[in-house]
Amino acid sequence: MNHATGPTLAIALLIFLTATVLAALAAALLYRPLRRQRAVREVLDAADALEERLRIARAEIAAVAGDEGRDPVGEAMREMLRQRLWLRDHGRQASLNQLGEVRASIDAARGRIEQQLVQIEQARLN
To answer: Taking the CA atoms of the chain, what radius of gyration do you get in angstroms?
Structure first.
């Protein structure tokens, strides 16, 4: 074996390992913004779905109870607006965990509205 082959092989291996680490690092840095964009998009989609469901709930409640009395959907609409404003003001700096918490909060609100709509429908049928 030639004495030059050992160092040449070691240098080639070092270059390969360095390139592999750099490629992995670049992939990780590129993937993180995609995860953030996806998380923000999912929060906005969930907020849109909740807003649509709230509009339907408001119409159904008005059909059953009329326009008199309190507006049970109003508070949920205001909460959704607060979430959207928070996202606008803090979404770029928010961690993925914070975005996940906002999404979970919106999903929970939607679940509560769905339960109320089921109760309204049952009251309508009785």
So the answer is: 26
Alpha carbon 80 to its chain centroid, in Å, reads: 13
- Euclidean distance between the first and final Cα of the chain, in Å? 93
Question: pLDDT tens across 2-60, in order?
Answer: 555 667 777 877 788 888 887 887 777 766 677 878 888 888 888 888 888 888 888 87
- The stretches of the chain forming alpha helices (DSSP H) are 5-65, 72-90, 96-125
- For residue 8, give the amino acid letter: T
Q: Distance between CA atoms of 92 and 37, rounded to whole angstroms? A: 9
User: What count of other Cβ atoms lies within 10 Å of the Cβ of residue 117?
Assistant: 15
| 85 alpha-carbon distance from chain centroid | 14
Inter-residue contact 107 to 79 (CB < 8 Å): no
pTM: predicted TM-score of the whole model, two decimal places: 0.61
In 3D space, the residue among 42, 43, 117 whose CA is nearest the CA of residue 80 turns out to be 43
> Which residue type is seen at 75?
E
